[in-house]
User: Fold Multicopper oxidase domain-containing protein from Polycladomyces zharkentensis.
Amino acid sequence: MILSKFVDKLPIPPVLKPCRKDPFHTYYKVNMTEFKQSLHSELNDTTVWGYEGSYPGPTIEVESGEKVFIKWINNLPAKHLLPVDYTVHGAHMDVPEVRTVVHVHGASVEPESDGYPEAWFTKGFKQVGPYYTKKVYRYDNYMRACTLWYHDHALGITRLNVYAGLAGFYLIRDQQERLLNLPCGPYEIPLMIQDKSFNKDGSLFYPKQPEKPIPQLETSIVPEFIGNTNLVNGKVWPYLKVEPRKYRFRLLNASNTRFYRLKLDSGQFFYQIGTDGGLMEYPIGVKEIMLAPAERADVIIDFTNLEGKNIIMTNDAPAPFPGGASPNPNTVGTVMQFRVTLPLSSIDTSVIPSYLGSLPKLREQSASKIRYLTLDDITDQYGREWMLLDGKRWDAPITENPKLGSTEIWYLINLTTDTHPIHIHLVDFQILDRRAFDVERFKKERVIHYTGPSIPPEPQERGWKDTVRANPNQVTRIIMRFGPYTGLYVWHCHILEHEDYEMMRPFVVIR
Assistant:
């Protein structure tokens, strides 16, 4: 069943209104519920999960430095919408099937409000995980203007909860960004891109078994999930009517596994102005934008002088990445359409500034510690692929304990055939370089033998990042300063099937 393209309008998530706001703090309540929503006009309404009755959830907009309190409320049914594998860490029979905990991805936040995977809670907070400490999370938002997003992070079922619809944008704004006169208001639109598959009745399809089923198990985790349709803001292949002027789009790859290499079929540029952690120093004009799961790119597209044109955003990233099949241009090779059909409502005075602000570089000499960390692919007792960080399972003793205020360089040594988007909670980092090395020799001798020159980060990655693509046959080096909080956080692969099994490790920032 192939759905028609560009028949549904792009939805724009509403901005959430706080319950209370005074000069000192802002308070929100956010409910998670199950409901039906139309994801395409040719499909029956789909049962999804979402925040505040919408998928994606409403956009939360805050000011840099604003003290924000959010009570995340689980009002979901006791039975999961999707097939749960009870052999996965954190999802055994001794815990409730439906549990949630919210992580604001990219936020610098106290550990009790970070959404630790074992700080989950059920409906009405009746049952809570071993690390649960409080109902109301606190976000101090000591960050520059940037595009963050919030999503579920419950141990062992993150892939299912996010796929069911638990994701939304969280935007931090500041005065410096306002003074740049970027496109704003109706000309600034967040775009959450995800892939999904559907059953004939319109319900979400998620596999119960990998391609080679595991006979001993009724339900088994799959090594990755690759959907056959693209959705933007919860609509399959939508269209957006635009005026012939500049628009700012905040692109987010919120897929479980799929990477996107986005292009415009008109051949025109994206003017990229920001990375995960906010504005870059200078904008760059690029013909394509590469986004691994969880990565964001802040871009301006100029539709001036394109009256009457239709422009399609396409994707040609192989799935799984980088060794998988190229996407079919008729299905997942298409993302959405822009129609330059609205009349110009006012003169476009917005600009693409030549300079966006200073970006101090972290110096390698300032690092007090270097860590060598492997990305590993082994097999479990059922012969399934088992992805690990540094050869360790989730519940092995903590081995990464950076000191508050210290700078570290992490060497991510990829011994697998996949590119892994590695996300580190609490901090933003800078990418130093990537370098090819001899994987087989490393496996035998545990020594890095480089086989090529150091490759600097791509122009589109030269900013603050919280998620980095660690490519196969390469060592990826990142540098970061740990703080301003101490306590327990996690780092993991953001391919959600890998994170759940069990490519995620705790780390603790110590005084």
